[in-house]
Amino acid sequence: MAQQSLPKDKIKFLLLEGVHPSAVETLKRDGYTNIDFHKKALPPEELKQAIAGAHFVGIRSRTQLTEEIFESAKKLVAVGCFCIGTNQVDLKAATKRGIAVFNAPFSNTRSVAELVIAEAILLLRGVAEKNAAAHRGEWMKTAVNSYEIRGKKLGIIGYGNIGMQLGVIAESMGMQVQFYDVVNKLPLGNARQVPSLNQLLASSDVVSLHVPETGATQNMIGSAELAQMKQGGILINASRGTVVDIDGLSAALGSGQLGGAAIDVFPVEPRSNDDEFVSPLRQYDNTFLTPHIGGSTVEAQENIGMEVAEKLAKYSDNGTSTSSVNFPEVALPEHAGSHRLLHIHRNVPGIMSAINNVFSETGVNVSAQYLQTNEDVGYVVIDVDADYSDIALERLLAIEGTLRSRVLF
Ligand SMILES: NC(=O)c1ccc[n+]([C@@H]2O[C@H](COP(=O)([O-])OP(=O)(O)OC[C@H]3O[C@@H](n4cnc5c(N)ncnc54)[C@H](O)[C@@H]3O)[C@@H](O)[C@H]2O)c1
Ligand SMILES: O=C(O)[C@H](O)COP(=O)(O)O
């Protein structure tokens, strides 16, 4: 698909799910004024209509960008996930259309770690049920089953950006930290990596999940795993709702196998704040049930707004794709005085020589060339004399395996 450089006010940004106003400010500061801002996620049919004219779309964790939605998004150049997770985007569907996907891998990690440590403290003290009882007029003054976190063992599943920060905070509060991860990780402080999930479950007082949503993490904590945990142990999940089997968790809370749980993410979450939250866990006082707000702090949202908007603007301005989750990463200088051709193609043998032939055969002068590939996609950026970019673009588009090509003035 060919795209000529457009004036900035003709480049349309569709921003959904109430991304922070810092995103709009960042885009406007960079000259992008055509911004369609929505406070909520759109139902699929409305989304299809809204995305049809958009060059860039910004979403959070609720909007599902499926093959069908991408099919309606003929002008789409890039997706910005104003969050960490990208499981809501069909990355294969985006990649095969040459659409780059960006996210904010760090900006809300501290917010999640803080929430989890607070929940660990409150659950070990039995505050969730004491608070619920007090709201009903009951007075539960007792030290039974109330513990300090000092000296207790925290088991972290998924020792990535959030898991590592949580480990550091927990250790500074006197907890012993161990973690399980599919990758060998450098333990921070005195943390210790354990070789198996079962070992972690059996030896931790509090277990906290920080894995992404993948095939391997689907229902990774079910009845069998909960039975491995210490009697009265605490489970915290602020990762993705598909990671814990909620019926299994409900049974473990009902039988007293678990002493409490804090769950921020659910297999099915209400579409909006106006819809009812339905879950078997509502019956248990010893749980914190939060509406997917692990990353929802003013600080995190403001930073994410700026970070992702900057990535989209940079990609639009000069083709820089640094930190894209599905695309080869290229950090590009400005291209004053020349036109910049961006060529995105399937990474198949012979395609680079076909691209280079365009310039040797037409005699178009190349002032700079950048290339990066990943397993699926190749991304070539070529700066050429302004007078010849049209001819070169036409020839580039004819190359077999081309996914998308555009020229920036
Ligand atoms: N509740 C919220 O609001 C909220 C906010 C931010 C992130 N999240 C979720 O938390 C997840 C983790 O975030 P992060 O920034 O720490 O991600 P990350 O990618 O930095 O870390 C994930 C870790 O999990 C490990 N892992 C992957 N598959 C595993 C498996 N099968 N078993 C064990 N370990 C496995 C990885 O090796 C990695 O170390 C995100 O993917 C997102 O879904 C939720
Ligand atoms: O992936 C994330 O960063 C979290 O799940 C937060 O998503 P949200 O922006 O939709 O709250």
From TrEMBL:
InterPro entries: ACT-like_dom_sf, ACT_dom, AHAS_small-like_ACT, D-iso_2-hydroxyacid_DH_PdxB, D-isomer_2_OHA_DH_cat_dom, D-isomer_DH_CS, D-isomer_DH_CS1, D-isomer_DH_NAD-bd. Pathway: Amino-acid biosynthesis; L-serine biosynthesis; L-serine from 3-phospho-D-glycerate: step 1/3. GO terms for molecular function: (S)-2-hydroxyglutarate dehydrogenase activity; NAD binding; phosphoglycerate dehydrogenase activity. It comes from the Bacteria. One of its GO terms (biological process) is L-serine biosynthetic process. Its EC number is 1.1.1.399, 1.1.1.95. It catalyses: (R)-2-hydroxyglutarate + NAD(+) = 2-oxoglutarate + NADH + H(+); (2R)-3-phosphoglycerate + NAD(+) = 3-phosphooxypyruvate + NADH + H(+). Keywords: Amino-acid biosynthesis, NAD, Oxidoreductase, Serine biosynthesis. Gene3D superfamilies: 3.30.70.260, NAD(P)-binding Rossmann-like Domain. It is an enzyme of class 1 (oxidoreductase). Residues 340-409 form the ACT domain. Catalyzes the reversible oxidation of 3-phospho-D-glycerate to 3-phosphonooxypyruvate, the first step of the phosphorylated L-serine biosynthesis pathway. Also catalyzes the reversible oxidation of 2-hydroxyglutarate to 2-oxoglutarate. Belongs to the D-isomer specific 2-hydroxyacid dehydrogenase family. This is D-3-phosphoglycerate dehydrogenase. It comes from Halioglobus maricola.
